[in-house]
Amino acid sequence: MNIEAVRSDFPALREWTYLDTAFVGLFPRQVKEGYIDFIDRWMNFSAEGTKTILTEWLEKTGKVRSMVADLVGASPTEIAFTTCTGSGLNIVVNGTRWEKGDNVVFPVWEHNPLDTYTLQRYGVEPRPVDVRNGRVELSDLEKKVDDKTKLVQVSQVSYVNGFRFDLKDVSDIAHEHGAKVLVDSTQAVGALETNFRRDDVDFVSAAPYKYLMGPAGLAFLYVRSENLAELVPDRVGWKNQIWKGDRAEEPTDLDTAEKFEYGTIHFQGVYALEKSLEYLKRIGIDTVERRNLELSSYLWGEVNNLGKKMYTPEDTKSPIVSFYQEDAVGLAAKLMGCKVKVTGREAHDGHVRVSVHFYNTKEDIDNLIQRL
């Protein structure tokens, strides 16, 4: 990978030491070209041949659906497009058949905890798992799971400090009790090599505006093929209409995840996402992961050498490194004044979160360390 050529594709890097992809990822100029292509085609009504412009949008969506599936080790029929990570998580929760006495298990620091109006309405018991020393121990999670557990929810990579689950281990625990595994993968997809089928998870929701360097307002939901029949769409619209009477739309194939797409999706975002996926494919997700882990390991060591109390465990293999910090929000604001972007939070005992991506360099990290 030619890092100088890569960095030239990201205009913000000319001015910023940007170490906050876990908040919002930068996207390269090629993604902007995807947005412009969509707008130009619409403004000029440049649909090909006798196609309607909607047909063209839907065909592009099918192509990008396959690209997403290739990236995460899935089939295109297992991928639905949604609006955000939370939308996908709620589709799973609302489409599951609940009974009083069921329970759900999740780490206490989840970004979208499994405590929803639907679960409360059915009397489902939330069972949060404590965080100890910056990690969620599998033994602690396993103690919460029993034969009445219906869903176990985890983030593949924690947005708080980058703690990374072995998803296959979580799946083994859940499936032993007949529970399903629901994953938030927003902080992993695009940064790390992922294969949902290999990890034996049931449902995954992710948004592409971080490490996938894609659009906001578009996300995707993975539903393992074996779960498609029993998971019921929680809403209907023109795209997944079940009405069979007069003037009915063409029926959606109920054997695919597309049945969860109930209306017009963010087609402009689809055009942009195509470009970000092409960009990552050119570099190679294995190259991206290797560079991210090299950078985050270097970052962890340099921050630790400053004498900071580390929130991220030393052996963590993710692109996020967090450390405890008094007045974390104030420090992040001061760093912004120096054109260094990180996240500062008073939550979770006050910490600064630094997140790298393949477009960063050790010089970026050295600049941060000097400022600290």
Compact description:
This protein has 372 residues and is of the alpha/beta class.
Structure description:
This protein has 372 residues and is α/β, with parallel strands linked by helices. It folds into two domains: 38-281, Type I PLP-dependent aspartate aminotransferase-like (Major domain) (Aspartate Aminotransferase, domain 2, 3-Layer(aba) Sandwich); 285-371, Aspartate Aminotransferase, domain 1 (Alpha-Beta Complex), CATH 3.90.1150. The protein contains twelve helices and twelve strands. It has helices at residues 3-8, 29-43, 53-72, 85-95, 117-121, 138-144, 167-176, 196-199, 267-283, 285-305, 328-337, 362-371, and strands at 17-18, 79-82, 103-107, 125-129, 149-155, 180-184, 203-206, 219-223, 320-324, 340-341, 343-345, 351-355. Strands 2-8-7-6-5-3-4 form a seven-stranded mixed β-sheet, with helices on both faces. Helix 2 packs antiparallel against helix 9 and helix 10 runs parallel beside helix 12 (362-371). It is globular. The model has no long low-confidence stretch (mean pLDDT 94).
Strand order of the largest sheet: 2-8-7-6-5-3-4
Order of helices and strands: HEHHEHEHEHEHEHEEHHEHEEEH
> How big a fraction of the residues is strand?
5-15%
Unreliable parts: none
Estimated helix fraction: 25-40%
Relevant terms:
372 residues; alpha/beta; Aspartate Aminotransferase, domain 2; Aspartate Aminotransferase, domain 1; 2 domains; 7-stranded mixed sheet; 3-stranded antiparallel sheet; 12 helices; globular
